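BUG: 3D viewer hangs when loading the predicted structure for this chain

Environment: internal workstation, default settings.
Expected: structure renders.
Actual: progress bar stalls at 90%.

Input used:
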Amino acid sequence: MTSNGERDFPAPFLRRCVQCELREPNESELQEIVAAHFADLVLGDDISKIVSEFVGVRSSVTLATDQLLNAVHLLLSSDKPHSEAERKRILNTVFQGLGG
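C-alpha cells produced before the viewer hung:
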C-alpha cells in the first residue's frame, strides 16, 4: 500500500506496517526508468529533453514519475510529430503539481 503522504493513518495501523520512504529518482535514474518502459523507442535527445524538463518542473512542484512516463508516451508514440505549441501544451497539462 502506498499513501504518497496524501492522508494520515491511525497509529495502531502504522505500528503493524513496515514503512519505507523512497527518494525521488535522479535524472539518470529517470532515463533508465523511461528506457525500461519504452524499450521500443530509440532513446535520444527527445527523451533526454523531456526528462530534463520534468526534473526542472519537479524542482518547484511535486510530480510523480508516472507523469513523466505519460508525457513520453503522449509525445513520442505518435506517428506524426507535434508542433512546439502542442508539445508545450501537453507538458503543461501532464506536469501539473500533485496535492495542491
